[in-house]
UniProtKB/TrEMBL annotation, chain A:
<protein>
    <submittedName>
        <fullName>ABC transporter permease</fullName>
    </submittedName>
</protein>
<keyword id="KW-0472">Membrane</keyword>
<keyword id="KW-0813">Transport</keyword>
<feature type="transmembrane region" description="Helical">
    <location>
        <begin position="98"/>
        <end position="119"/>
    </location>
</feature>
<dbReference type="InterPro" id="IPR035906">
    <property type="entry name" value="MetI-like_sf"/>
</dbReference>
<dbReference type="InterPro" id="IPR000515">
    <property type="entry name" value="MetI-like"/>
</dbReference>
<feature type="transmembrane region" description="Helical">
    <location>
        <begin position="34"/>
        <end position="59"/>
    </location>
</feature>
<dbReference type="GO" id="GO:0055085">
    <property type="term" value="P:transmembrane transport"/>
</dbReference>
<feature type="transmembrane region" description="Helical">
    <location>
        <begin position="193"/>
        <end position="213"/>
    </location>
</feature>
UniProtKB/TrEMBL annotation, chain B:
<keyword id="KW-1003">Cell membrane</keyword>
<feature type="domain" description="ABC transmembrane type-1">
    <location>
        <begin position="70"/>
        <end position="260"/>
    </location>
</feature>
<dbReference type="GO" id="GO:0055085">
    <property type="term" value="P:transmembrane transport"/>
</dbReference>
<keyword id="KW-1133">Transmembrane helix</keyword>
<feature type="transmembrane region" description="Helical">
    <location>
        <begin position="108"/>
        <end position="128"/>
    </location>
</feature>
<keyword id="KW-0813">Transport</keyword>
<feature type="transmembrane region" description="Helical">
    <location>
        <begin position="238"/>
        <end position="259"/>
    </location>
</feature>
<comment type="similarity">
    <text>Belongs to the binding-protein-dependent transport system permease family.</text>
</comment>
<keyword id="KW-0812">Transmembrane</keyword>
Length: 314, 279
């Protein structure tokens, strides 16, 4: 008898046992009540903290609501959305969000994957890399932003500026120049979160079967060939998952940009998230801020729809 | 042979460079916390200096002590962790182990709530909390932290509960144990590791949260991530003190990260590899 036949018989026996002895079948009603009791508190809390605010947000997005001028409040219909579509600052922040998200995610995955392959091939020192990689990931983005802004990128005494001067690139106003400021916040995000991609991909690499690589070696495949033909296809689910997770985080990034540039200079680093915050809590225009947040939600849904389609494809 | 040596050398050099790039900003800001204000501003940057604890003494016991803010951060993080786990463990167990109608729908709901942008939650929440007078209160901030910690905790725990063989539970039933007793005696000891991973993640996320805290904090509730802005102003930034505050804000999470390193890597991988393969 071959292996699969044995497995089949075993499974059959197990199913028979299941039918006879399954106590859950006898107590189905009790089980449902038990399940409801376990689920109810968590789902009530979830609804109260996510679903209800969402509905309330959509409702306020149809209102004229300004905390500094409460006497002007009233139903506004689609006014906020009409204003939004004609608002150049909205389109600009959407563009910054796109650039910020796309570039940070691509950089994280490319660098993280390259480094994971590199470290995976090491016989010694893997532990050191894992230990160091955990550090940026556990830090608060606000503190990370503060550290970079104060001690790395400050124009007079920052280390980055010193290195640039030493390398003959000259001193720059890293956070005062619109382009450099955007590059800076992208680098900071990439610095903090590439270790995440690195750790996940390294763990996925370690889980790949060795014998395929053995076979590739016997067939005299080059290192690049075995990376292209074996590693990449096998790692695809993990890579796509990392892309999805990192995109979701990049879209809601807030603290690091808030501490480093505050969205400035001007609106050069103002992602949509930050614009909605500034509108609502700095300019106190809650109604319009709500419409911006709804736009961000729609944008998030579209992006995640695309990403999940990417995951299902093949 | 020399070509191979050269390649190895380049690989070591490149990986060493990345190692340095990750560790340097953290080490550098820690170093600055032991400098005097003049030494922080020295140009070129000083690697060798005579260390002092002045900055730490000032931020801990000076006029603007951040001890209350550290306490605030701990109250928020521990409170969020306790409430989250109390709600998430039973729910994750039910979703993973019990046969209930609408289970797929419930799982999808948990996943979908994670996609809500935080700024979209804080706007209505601010209005609600303002009406009931809960701004600048611990209950207000812990409640809203559930919006991100709870879906994450449920989602992570479900994958651990699913790993336990059904046979163990059945054996307990056949011995006449009740559902609740089985959960306590058989299931929970099995998922201890998963619970530990989840606790670490929930604590870290609560400690590091910023957007909700910046809107809802005040004089009573003021976590250290918000309080560090006290040392930054347009006229004068107190650099060494800022470095000391940053160091104190980083210390608990770095300790947690190093101690729970294996758990964290495992948690990340469960999310990316396993959860990804299943749903």
């Amino acid at each position: 008898m071959n292996k699969s036949a044995v497995a089949g018989v075993v499974a059959q026996g197990r199913r028979a046992l299941h039918r006879r002895a399954d106590p859950a079948r006898i107590m189905e009603g009790r089980e449902r009540r038990f399940a409801a009791a376990l689920l109810a508190p968590a789902f009530l809390a979830l609804m109260a903290t996510t679903t209800f605010p969402l509905l309330f947000l959509i409702w306020t997005s149809f209102y004229r609501m300004n905390l500094s001028m409460p006497f002007m409040d009233g139903f506004a219909g689609l006014d906020n959305y009409r204003e939004l579509l004609a608002d150049p600052r909205f389109w600009q922040s959407l563009g910054v969000s796109l650039v910020y998200t796309a570039s940070t995610v691509v950089l994280q995955v490319v660098i993280g994957l390259a480094l994971a392959v590199l470290v995976h091939g090491m016989r010694r020192g893997q532990g050191l890399f894992r230990m160091v990689a955990i550090l940026p990931v556990v830090l608060s983005p606000a503190v990370v932003g503060m550290v970079w802004r104060s001690f790395m990128l400050a124009p007079d005494f920052g280390v980055v500026d010193y290195l640039a001067v030493t390398a003959g690139l000259g001193s720059h106003n890293w956070l005062g120049d619109p382009t450099l400021a955007l590059v800076s916040v992208i680098v900071i995000h990439t610095w903090q979160w590439t270790p995440f991609a690195f750790m996940v991909l390294l763990a996925s690499l370690a889980a790949l079967p060795d014998d395929i690589y053995e076979a590739a070696r016997i067939d005299r495949a080059s290192a690049w060939q075995s990376f292209r033909r074996i590693t990449l296809p096998l790692l695809r689910p993990a890579i796509v998952m990392v892309i999805i997770m990192r995109t979701m985080v990049a879209l809601t990034a807030f603290a690091a940009i808030f501490t480093v540039t505050g969205g400035g200079p001007g609106t050069a680093t103002e992602i949509l998230n930050l614009y909605a915050y500034r509108k609502s809590f700095t300019e106190l225009s809650i109604g319009y801020g709500s419409a911006l947040a709804v736009a961000l939600l729609v944008f998030t849904l579209v992006v995640s729809g695309v990403l999940f389609a990417l995951r299902r494809a093949k | 042979m020399t070509a191979k040596r050269l390649r190895l050398g380049i690989l070591i050099g490149v990986s060493g460079l990345f190692l340095l790039a990750w560790i340097f900003p953290i080490l550098w800001s820690l170093l600055n916390a032991f400098k005097t204000e003049q030494d922080v501003l020295a140009y070129p940057p000083k690697l060798v200096f005579s260390p002092t604890l002045d900055a730490f003494r000032d931020v801990l016991f000076g006029a603007t002590s951040i001890l209350p803010n550290l306490a605030s951060s701990f109250i928020i993080s521990i409170g969020t962790t306790i409430v989250t786990m109390a709600l998430a463990i039973p729910a994750a167990y039910a979703l993973a182990r019990l046969r209930i109608p609408g289970k797929r729908w419930a799982g999808f709901y948990v996943l979908a709530t994670q996609m809500l942008p935080p700024v979209g939650i804080i706007i209505p929440y601010f209005l609600i909390l303002r009406n009931i007078g809960w701004i600048d209160t611990y209950q207000g901030i812990i409640l809203i932290y559930l919006s991100f910690s709870l879906p994450f905790a449920i989602w992570l725990l479900v994958s651990y509960f699913e790993d336990i063989p059904f046979e163990m539970e059945e054996a307990a039933f056949l011995d006449g144990a009740s559902r609740l007793k089985t959960l306590r005696r058989i299931i929970l000891p099995q998922v201890q590791g998963g619970v530990a991973v989840t606790v670490v993640f929930v604590f870290l996320n609560a400690w590091n949260e910023f957007l909700f805290a910046v809107v809802l904090s005040g004089n009573t509730v003021r976590p250290v991530t918000i309080a560090m802005f006290n040392f930054v102003s347009v006229e004068q930034t107190l650099w060494a003190k800022l470095a000391a505050v940053s160091a104190l804000a980083m210390l608990p999470v770095i300790v947690l990260g190093v101690v729970a390193q294996k758990h964290i890597v495992k948690g990340l991988t469960v999310g990316a590899v396993k959860g990804g393969g299943r749903r």
